[in-house]
Amino acid sequence: MAQKMTDEEWRAFVSYGTRTGKLSTVSADGGPHVAPIWFLLDGDDLVFNTGKETVKGRNLARDGRIALCVDDDRPPFHFAVLHGRARLSEELEEVRLWATRIAARYMGEERAEEYGARNGVPGELLVRVAVEKVVAIKDLAA
């Protein structure tokens, strides 16, 4: 039977392994734009990088509202959707620091510096989202 995840459960769920998030931003015409992202949780913030001139980057600069879905597509199926507002930073030291931390999760510690250097450059943004609402359900098919 499906159940709501606790705060501790959804945090562990979205942080497990190399699960990607499906980020939804608000397009210029008001419609949704969805793209996969690498991310980390930092306290109550969702943290990720994106290019300033990407669709995501432009959308976030105009309207910071986001929703991020993380799911497990294997039975018994689980998901978490996080909602919030993005704050953007172009502070290069901060962008590179978080690009390296995020890369460690997805590419492993041995390649983190390589990816941090690649993704922590001018033109990249650090995006911090204060998580305001979470809908997280486990065991959908149990």
UniProtKB/TrEMBL annotation:
<dbReference type="InterPro" id="IPR011576">
    <property type="entry name" value="Pyridox_Oxase_N"/>
</dbReference>
<dbReference type="InterPro" id="IPR012349">
    <property type="entry name" value="Split_barrel_FMN-bd"/>
</dbReference>
<dbReference type="GO" id="GO:0016627">
    <property type="term" value="F:oxidoreductase activity, acting on the CH-CH group of donors"/>
</dbReference>
<dbReference type="InterPro" id="IPR052019">
    <property type="entry name" value="F420H2_bilvrd_red/Heme_oxyg"/>
</dbReference>
<dbReference type="Pfam" id="PF01243">
    <property type="entry name" value="PNPOx_N"/>
</dbReference>
<feature type="domain" description="Pyridoxamine 5'-phosphate oxidase N-terminal">
    <location>
        <begin position="7"/>
        <end position="134"/>
    </location>
</feature>
<protein>
    <submittedName>
        <fullName>PPOX class F420-dependent enzyme</fullName>
    </submittedName>
</protein>
<dbReference type="GO" id="GO:0070967">
    <property type="term" value="F:coenzyme F420 binding"/>
</dbReference>
<dbReference type="InterPro" id="IPR019920">
    <property type="entry name" value="F420-binding_dom_put"/>
</dbReference>
<keyword id="KW-0560">Oxidoreductase</keyword>
<dbReference type="GO" id="GO:0005829">
    <property type="term" value="C:cytosol"/>
</dbReference>
